[in-house]
């Protein structure tokens, strides 16, 4: 068994997916982490569901995908609390400026942001957005707040962005995201 498999075996990773054009890359992230032995539980925002179908992540993760806080599981305990309790890591990839702002301000209007407040698991964020959105003082302040709180960031790449501009804000490569998760659990 490779070291990657050993490290991720039995780990529960909540994969938050938000409404970025890079949301399609969550399919590859799900696939790679699942193949490496992690139990990947995808949590999609409504925005993410406009970019990719939950069915894609459900099939690749072999786990139910949750997205609607008003249609949770059948048990007595709200599904988001149960998921939050089980998590070894909350990884958000891609993370929009909106999601980062909600995390920084403790807002919980949907399932992902509610899980974020309810979990004591470490949080890892891979931002993806237009370079001007990333450079905006509000976004930078939100990122600084989360860093101060001990959140882990996977820095975006520079390159040609989907919005047509060149700059910083491109979601880190899937390789780098998977390597960062493996490294995190190896520590
Ligand atoms: C085509 C398109 C692409 C978008 N890409 C991004 C993106 O990469 N990053 C981002 O922060 N917002 C992006 N947005 C804006 C978000 O979808 C919007 O802020 C939304 O409210 C995010 O909601 P969520 O964070 O709950 O998923 C995009 C919107 C559209 C229509």
Short structural description:
The chain is α/β, with parallel strands linked by helices. The chain contains 10 helices and 7 strands.
Walkthrough of the structure:
By secondary structure, this protein is of the alpha/beta class. The chain has one domain (3-186): Rossmann fold (3-Layer(aba) Sandwich). Helix content is 46%, strand content 19%. It has helices spanning 3-8, 25-35, 46-51, 54-61, 79-86, 97-105, 111-118, 131-135, 137-148, 174-186; strands at 12-17, 39-44, 89-95, 123-127, 152-153, 157-160, 166-170. The strands form two sheets. The protein has a five-stranded parallel beta sheet with strand order 2-1-3-4-5, sandwiched between helices. A two-stranded antiparallel ribbon has the order 6-7. Strand 6 and strand 7 form a beta hairpin. Helix 5 packs across helix 7. It is globular. The chain starts with a helix and ends with a helix. Flavin mononucleotide binds at residues 18-22, 45, 47-48, 96-99, 128-129, 133.
Please describe the structure with a list of short key phrases separated by commas or semicolons.
Rossmann fold, binds flavin mononucleotide, 187 residues, globular, alpha/beta, two-stranded antiparallel ribbon
CATH class: Alpha Beta
The helix tally amounts to: 10
Please tally the β strands and state the result: 7
User: Are any ligands bound, and if so which?
Assistant: flavin mononucleotide
In CATH terms, the superfamily is Flavin prenyltransferase-like
Following the backbone from N to C, one meets helices and strands in this order, namely HEHEHHHEHHEHHEEEH
In order across it, which strands form the biggest sheet? 2-1-3-4-5
Q: Helicity, in percent?
A: 40-55%
Structural class: alpha/beta
Strand content: 15-25%
CATH overall fold name? Rossmann fold
Radius of gyration: 15 Å
* CATH architecture level-2 label: 3-Layer(aba) Sandwich
Which stretches are low in confidence, meaning pLDDT under 50 for 5 or more residues running?
Answer: none
